Amino acid sequence: MAFSTRLNWDQKENALTRLLSRKLHAGAAVLDLTESNPTCAGFQYDADAVLGAMRDRRALLYQPSAKGLEEARAAISSYYADHGVRVDTSRILLTSGTSEAYSYLFKLLADPGDEILVPRPSYPLFEHLAGLESVRLRQYPLFYQEGWWLDGEALRRVIGPRTRAIVALNPNNPTGSFLKQPEVDTLANLCREHDLAVICDEVFSDFVLDDRRGRLRTLAARDDFPSVSLNGVSKMLGLPQMKLGWMVVNGPEVWRDAARRRLEWVADSFLSVGAPVQHAAARWMSLRPAFQMQVMERLRTNLAALRQAIAEQPLCGLLHVEGGWYATIRLPRVRGEEEWVIGLLDAGDVYVQPGYFFDFESEAHVVVSLLTPPARFVEGVRRMMKHVESCCDRMGGKFLQE
């Protein structure tokens, strides 16, 4: 039986995954520094409030709405108002999460074979989402020099005749870099020049670690070029299992209204967001300050510990992080990334992700999650620094020539 070529992905486990499986099967106490699931990271949840919010008796009545129930969209509108941005509920459309939102937007903006531009480095899920919609990805580079930045000319060079949209992450996962106003102006000019739209993923936007260089709070505040802002409760409230996300359609009124109508047609074909979740949205949004206070304390604590560890180990470097849940560590180029991460797991029982998972252009980088419980994080980083020093000592100083 023949299957769709959209699913012709390499499903073989890589060497790192195979080693991790063997370690766990053997009962090794692996220190996982990649923890990104907030429900498994040791945070305190108000279980009565979270679960009780879904016991609304109105959920017994089926009231299908392509955009989502007005009450839920009003709660989301209030979130933007808290940040000083007016978003009318008519511009908001609910989804079961940002992955579904991407699928809707790829359907809206592209025909099969058209191209979507995505940043490099960035989250590897885009390749799968694009493949399932029969659209192609092209990457545009982000550059690093005392911080990450977007180069307009480099982006312009990858725009082709079948380019339909530009994906931007604010902040990026995993670099933690926010969009700056001049970069948004660049995106706006390119969209107007080439008849494109921007898809702006803002799921980590509430988690700000450094605002000294300025940042875009949300693209929902811009109405001068076509764009759609994505967010949801997965990161904002630490509730990925509740499957509630949303899109905010931005831009000139004519484009915005046309896009909104078409998105409603797409959403009406699926009606994926459950009634209990929609009725719970307003009460869940009220839990945001308490949850985010816990997360921010965790992020700052782990980032401070990481900075201290790297300050004491000059062989490594920490790339500047402005927000989000991740940090990138630069390791000496005496080994490739795969050799570093496999060696660290094999010798030290520490699991980190190599930079090539996220399409870093140069080696050697590893990515760690600042969401990791602090005791595990500190010990894992300590072992990492010790492993790096031991490996470089065995190289006899040759790494200095790299």
**Morphology call:** globular
**First-residue to last-residue Cα separation:** 51 Å
Mean pLDDT score:
95
Structure summary, number of beta strands? 14
Estimated helix fraction: 25-40%
Low-pLDDT windows of residues:
none
Written as H for each helix and E for each strand, in order along the chain, the element string is HEHHEHEHEEHEHEEHEHHHEEHEEEH
CATH superfamily of the largest domain: Type I PLP-dependent aspartate aminotransferase-like (Major domain)
**What CATH architecture label of the largest domain applies?**
3-Layer(aba) Sandwich
CA radius of gyration: 22 Å
- Portion of residues in beta strands equals 15-25%
Largest sheet: 8 strands, mixed
The strand order across the widest sheet is 2-9-8-7-6-3-4-5
The gist of it:
With 402 residues, the protein is α/β, with parallel strands linked by helices.
Summarize the structure in words.
- Helix 3 (70-82) packs parallel to helix 10 and helix 12 crosses helix 13 (374-394).
- This protein is 40% helix and 16% strand.
- It has helices at 15-25, 47-52, 70-82, 98-109, 125-132, 152-158, 181-194, 233-236, 253-268, 275-285, 288-311, 337-348, 374-394; strands at residues 31-32, 92-95, 115-120, 136-144, 148-150, 163-169, 197-201, 227-232, 245-250, 317-318, 326-330, 350-351, 353-354, 365-369.
- It has an 8-stranded mixed sheet, sandwiched between helices. The protein has a 4-stranded antiparallel sheet with strand order 10-11-14-13, covered by helices on one side.
- It is globular, with a radius of gyration of 22 Å.
- By secondary structure, it is α/β, with parallel strands linked by helices.
- It has 2 domains: 13-44 and 289-401, Alpha-Beta Complex (Aspartate Aminotransferase, domain 1), CATH 3.90.1150; 47-286, 3-Layer(aba) Sandwich (Aspartate Aminotransferase, domain 2).
- The mean pLDDT is 95.
- It is built from 13 helices and 14 strands.
